[in-house]
Amino acid sequence: MGVSEKMHETKKFPIFPLSILPLPGEIVPLHIFEPRYRQLLEDLEAGDGLFGILYSGLNNRYQLGTILNLEQVMKKYPTGESDIVCRGGDVFILVDYFMNYPGKLYPGGNIHILDFPDFPVGNELDEIFRSYMTDKDQSNLGDILMINDVANELDLDIQDRLSYLQILQKDKREKFLFERVRFRKHVLDQETRTNKFFIYN
Q: What InterPro entries does this protein's entry cite (predicted)?
């Protein structure tokens, strides 16, 4: 396991606790309605657009979260609510949490950003993932597969997301995703065989 301690270098950041854990590169739609997060959105639009989503589940023992970048405000309602689209970026550990970011209504925290780079996958994962996606009639993947793109295509459940973001070693991240792809390909193969059986009998 790669995450074992909280580092010394930290950065103060606006925090949005939610029951989701976005992956790097993932597109995340959000509906903003609470006054404190309306204020956060105003600050994001006026600033660099960056904030942290902290996964609020009790099983988040390392206080992992993901930095999101505001991509677009899709709609603003007369009530003051908004629909926005964000994209996942760096992974962080929350070191300290405070109910109010200095001078603001919304929460904040001191975070440590983890070294969690994106990189092209190796041949073994590349081969099985392309085969799996072809079985799903999705074969237009491009020449180079990046590790986080593979993770996002798998739509991992929350426990797998936590596990994936705790793995900092590249080879172990590949092995983790390889096992998930292999299992899903096996299930898909079984479903295909079952469907053919009922069609031809």
A: Lon_prtase_N, Lon_prtase_N_sf, PUA-like_sf
